[in-house]
Specification:
The protein has 345 residues and is α/β, with parallel strands linked by helices. The chain folds into two domains: 217 residues, 2-Layer Sandwich (Nucleotidyltransferase, domain 5), CATH 3.30.420; 96 residues, RRM (RNA recognition motif) domain (Alpha-Beta Plaits), CATH 3.30.70.330. It is built from 13 helices and twelve strands. The strands form two sheets. Strands 4-3-2-1-5-6 form a six-stranded mixed β-sheet, with helices on both faces. Strands 7-9-10-8-12-11 form a six-stranded mixed β-sheet. Helix 6 links the parallel strand 5 and strand 6.
Length: 345
């Protein structure tokens, strides 16, 4: 979070205690995790004022999301919604102004006036045990909004962490000479770099971004590998996950294969993201697909995993390495000829 020079001077004594309780890095966050409750906060709809600072009088929506499981052992999933569902995330949306077109969201949605915000937020957080830690991504706007509009919010948290700064720290571990390039990475860039789904429309909801912020934070805590833009511009490879078995398509995926078991048994029950994670060390992997759309196969597993690679060489290297190998007690068979197969369940 890069702060305007005037911003810090404008903060009142009502928020100074929270400001001093900043969690500066990932090691410090891990020390806070025992007994902590992580509460993501995001706002939508503000613009810049004459000083170039985020305006607080045009906020149209507030979003809050609380992760109700241990983030160090949370299920990362692929989308922010899946992350929220799998980790029992509690969500609240406060609409201050109705937006004509927005993405779908879960959790409670309340249309309210500014005068209603304090009661709604206090009720939402009232029964949460433990130390409340405020989580955000580039918290400039949200902290200024709290300090100028509802400073009572600062009293509800014992500390705060800006996930954008943690992403920045993670980037410079591998490229210390390119600090300026990594300083202002967006949430969408961080999601793509971790192979999480990135919402492509500008009509995002604040609470959905809260789930995405928590997803990125979970990836950092769990040390998920990621690739950030280099000094010559973005070089993040496009990676896709499909919840169905893909049909042969030589034009879109010319270097594809299927994995099955050598003895015809079902493969271990793994989601597309978990399959991608299992083979993440193989260079050139660009897509994974498998039938993952009904509860039975989620419990029993499927008979085929589909993988696509960026080059013929990557495909061949994968085949040489994986064909005949044992994965969780099952000998894997790699098929390269794209014969039509029926997924039997």
């Amino acid at each position: 979070m890069k702060l305007h020079a005037d911003l810090e001077r404008q903060w009142t004594n009502n928020i100074s205690a929270l400001w001093r309780a900043k969690i500066p890095d990932l090691p410090a966050l891990k020390e806070h995790l025992p007994g902590a409750v992580l509460i993501a906060f995001d706002s939508e709809g503000s613009s810049s004022d004459s000083d170039g600072l985020a305006s607080t009088n045009k906020v149209s929506e507030l979003g809050f999301a609380v992760i109700c499981t241990d983030i160090a052992n949370s299920k990362l999933e692929h989308t922010g919604k899946e992350f929220g569902d799998s980790n029992d995330t509690r969500e609240l949306t406060i609409e201050l102004q109705r937006k004509p077109k927005v993405e779908r969201t879960a959790g409670r949605i309340v249309r309210a006036q500014l005068s209603d915000v304090e009661e709604l937020v206090r009720d939402f957080l009232a029964d949460l045990p433990g130390k409340r830690v405020l989580v955000g991504y580039d918290l400039n706007r949200e902290l200024r909004w709290i300090s100028t509009t509802f400073p009572f919010l600062a009293d509800l948290f014992v500390a705060w962490v800006d996930v954008q700064e943690l992403v920045y720290h993670r980037c410079i571990q591998s490229s210390p000479t390119t600090l300026r390039i990594y300083e202002q990475q967006s949430l969408s860039t961080a999601l793509r770099a971790m192979r999480f789904s990135c919402h492509k429309t500008s009509a995002t909801r604040a609470v959905n971004d809260c789930c995405r912020i928590l997803q990125v934070l979970a990836g950092l805590v769990q040390a998920v590998p990621f690739i950030m833009p280099g000094p010559n511009g973005p070089r993040i490879p496009r990676f896709s996950l499909y919840p169905s078995l893909r049909k042969p398509d030589k034009e879109k995926h010319p270097f594809s294969l299927r994995i099955t078991s050598a003895d015809g048994r079902r493969l271990p029950p793994r989601s597309p993201q978990e399959v991608a994670d299992a083979f993440e060390n193989h260079e050139g992997l660009r897509a994974v697909g498998l039938n993952w759309q009904n509860e039975r196969v989620r419990q029993e597993g499927v008979r085929f995993w589909w993988l696509s690679f960026s080059t013929q060489e990557a495909l061949r290297n994968f085949c040489t390495s994986v064909h005949g190998s044992v994965f969780e007690g099952i000998t894997l068979c790699v098929i390269l000829d794209f014969e039509e197969m029926e997924e039997s369940g």
